[in-house]
Amino acid sequence: MSSEPRRPRRPASLDAVAAEALPGGIDPATRSQVAHTTAAAIVHQGRANADPDVVARLVALVETEGLDVVAALWSDAPAETLPGALWRLYVLREWVRRDPGTVSDRYKLGAGVAPVHEVVAGVADAPGPADVRAVADAVLSGVYTGDLAVALERAASFRRVLAAGAAFDADHLDDVDPGGAARMTRGAASLVRTAEELEHAATLWRAGKLD
Questions:
Q1: pLDDT band at residue 26 using 50, 70 and 90 as cut-offs
Q2: Is 103 left (phi over 0), alpha (psi -120 to 50) or beta?
Q3: Burial of 80: CB neighbours in 10 Å, binned 0-12, 13-18, 19+
Q4: Is residue 173 part of a domain?
Q5: Cα–Cα dist 13/64, whole Å
Q6: Most buried pick, 41, 49, 103, 172, via CB within 10 A?
Q7: Residue 150, Cα to own-chain centre: how many angstroms?
Q8: What pTM was computed for the model?
Q9: How large is the angle between the packed helices 28-48 and 129-145, nearest 10 degrees?
Q10: Spatial distance between the Cα atoms of 192 and 211, rounded to a whole number of angstroms
Q11: By mean pLDDT, which of 25-29, 142-146, 184-188 is the weakest?
């Protein structure tokens, strides 16, 4: 018998579907169908399975499948759809995972001017990199273990606090680096826009219209 440890089976693997979706020139209707089918399957499997290991692997989907694969499936989906909403949640987690120091600094700056959103987002006072990583994981876990609408609203609130922090940072940069300040301001506006999209998706989920 081989002594090599068995690798755990990954739930809802995207490999086969992604292989079909990645070639160029795929019909937009087919791409949309693939996006909706995979998003619904993953959410259904996660919400039907109480195993925390399964949920943890779904939360880490981008790490196991790769950002390019997930992007090929969901990044073109409209914000008011399930795959579009999931894409925005996974992008937020990936940003936090890759740059937790910047995210925690922006959150600290923004929390003072967005106190209501801070409560909803659920981040600890004066969060460090580990804290913002934990809340990003908790938000995605909520998709599979709690109220999906609340998870979307928490992600929206998190983005609003970060937007406030980015805007505050841009004000300080304006005198020394106007170009950098302008880029940061555009980034803050993009965060607010995505927050609004996530809030709308939460409303659709509650109405049974997010698919």
A1: low
A2: alpha
A3: middle
A4: yes
A5: 9
A6: 103
A7: 13
A8: 0.83
A9: 90
A10: 23
A11: 25-29
